[in-house]
Write the structure tokens for this entry.
Amino acid sequence: MKRKACLLLAATLLAASAAIAKPRNVTDPDAPRSLPDEGPVAVQWTDPAEFTELKFSGNRWEAQRGNWVYDLAMHLRKEAEKRLPPGERLEVTITDIDRAGSYEPGRGVQLDHVRIMRDVYPPKIKLAFRRYGADGQLVDEGERTLRDLMYLHNIQATLNNDGLVYEKRLIDDWLRHELGSGRVAGN
């Protein structure tokens, strides 16, 4: 019986490690295109294969690696929930992302997977949103292009190890502008 339990545990661990070992790819057909529907903020996104980040990348393979679209959507939800007045609802669709920096081809094998940060590669996010009041009526809607041409001049961001720091800052700035300070102080 002990041997059977050990074999079952080993098989479970092997399956789990195989799932973890597979690199995440934002263009995988099985990858989600929205966050789970919960709370007052709904976030979805169009096909990342059509995002500027991938279409015009110097290294498409490297650009599509990871879970960065989902991570940005989760950040958007978390920060919007802090600012959204009680009872209100926000629906956001991310339609394009061009991350800060770029992969520059021709830099050799040693640097082909390194994102080069220059002023000419600012972060950009395009999104559409709908905001509903506590009574369920549409309060505001629109499309926005978020961009920070001075992203490299923010010393706090350059000291941050988060690979999405510039994009998250775009989202934070937009939410601050769109929703105001909201309930942030009370959280």
